[in-house]
Amino acid sequence: MNATNSVVTTTNDEPKKPKGLTRQQWFTLFVIGSVHFASAICVSLQAPFYPQEIDVIGAKTLLNSAVVVAGLSVIAFGLIGYIDSHGWFISLSFIIRIVEALGAASSVTAAFAITAAAFPDNVATTFATLEIFYGMGYIAGPSIGGCLYSLGGYVPPFLVMGSALLLDGLVVYFVLPSFKRNDVESKGKFKELLKVPAVFIDAFSVMSASICLGFYSATLEPHIREFKLSPAILGLIFIINGTTYAATAPFVGMLCDRKFNPKVMILLGSIFMILSVFLVGPAPFFPFNETLPLVIVGLVLEGFGMSCIVVSAFIDALRSSVAGGFPDDITTYGLMSGFWSASFSLGDFIGPSVAGVLNDWMGFRYGSLFIVIVHIALFMTLSIYLLKHRKKTVYPISTLPKNAIEEHINPCVILEENYIKTNGVGYGTIEKKQEDCISRF
b vs e for 23-36, b when ≥16 Cβ sit within 10 Å of the residue's Cβ? Predict the structure, then answer.
């Protein structure tokens, strides 16, 4: 799915346009940019509503349907170049990308929900492993799209990738096991999820990381144009952050599944993001100019910061939502997945939008300080939260790694029937004696 999205970005800069369509630069940029932004914002708006469909049709059916819808949309997007009407060409571009966003939002929601349900003891590690493939798609998409475009023009990249998604739908249908749906309606609702402070901060964390990614994707090429790099080297520069993200995500996941506090990992990620901007710019208060080695190191830091924030925020939000009273079932996993997707896509919409304005107005060195401001705000918000709640944290037993119980985490008290208390926050739970906890294990 991610490879397909990056193929769209790669090949859509020079699509086959209807005869007679104006080539004025402002109009072309407006239409192409609007189509991409419509897709991103639609994912952000649609994703929170798909967890309800998991209860109705099941996670497997939702995933399978979403992949098929996305595959057909990608193929259709490759064929609109044959339309001669200006109005139909532009209208169908929006419609197809919005429908594809519908498939993307539901597929990510269902996939993450299935992951959490299938691997309850290692959610962070498994989620991080999936993110390897996200990074691989981010890396491979432009290369695949470029090769297919050079061989056959605008249409082949979309036909090949759309067909691959349809084939993936067949694999999902025949290979993936079904997951039991809830017999009763889930009490978890999107607006209730926003009332859990930790989840809201996690959403802001994911959005902040996505803003940085989108900012770089829109402004990095003009920023390093002065180095006069060959197309091959330029392509390698653009996959540095994705490669780093794919390589480090499993490591971050394993830490979160063991002893490392995911909120602290998010703090580290925000620091890496700030350092990345300071080096890639470089920051205007640094007494040296832009160099290629600094850009490379900065992109490596950005990839590592992405893995620290994105992976940690997902597992922390999942634990915090269940600790906040949500049922520990696949519907809650789906709700959390949709919330994560919405936050990421919102940042993916904000990042390039702000980047274009700031880059034209004040240049990359000053404009990129917007990312620094965002991540300083994240760092301060999360730090205040940790200081305020440093004495109590509640995670449900089912979301804790096995070794947490085996090593008898202290202090340890049972909250109601299914919760264990370590360092953090509990919402509306009742404390019992520590002896009850020890005797339970």
Answer: eeeeebeebbeebb
Burial environment of residue 220 by CB neighbours within 10 A (0 to 12, 13 to 18, 19 or more): buried
- The stretches of 183-291 forming alpha helices (DSSP H) are 190-193, 197-223, 231-238, 240-257, 262-280
Exposed/middle/buried for residue 146 (C-beta within 10 Å: 0-12, 13-18, 19+): middle
* Helix (H) or strand (E) run with residue 98 in it: helix 86-118
> How wide is the angle at C-alpha 392 spanned by C-alphas 391 and 396, nearest 5°?
155
What is the pTM for the complete model shown? 0.72
**Residue ranges of domains in the chain:** 2-179+188-388, 393-440
Q: What is the dihedral of CA 351, 161, 91, 348, to 10 degrees?
A: -10
At the second CATH level, the architecture of 2-179+188-388 is Up-down Bundle (1.20)
pLDDT 10s per residue in the chain (441 long)? 555 555 555 454 444 444 444 445 445 545 555 555 556 656 555 555 555 555 556 777 888 888 899 899 989 988 888 888 877 888 888 888 888 878 877 787 778 778 777 787 777 778 777 777 877 776 677 777 777 887 888 888 889 988 989 998 888 888 887 766 554 444 446 677 777 889 989 999 999 999 999 899 888 888 988 888 887 788 788 888 888 998 898 899 888 888 788 999 999 999 999 999 999 989 898 888 889 999 999 999 999 999 999 999 988 988 888 888 887 777 777 777 778 878 888 888 888 888 888 988 888 999 999 999 999 999 999 999 999 887 555 455 455 555 544 444 433 333 333 443 333 333 333 333 333 333 333
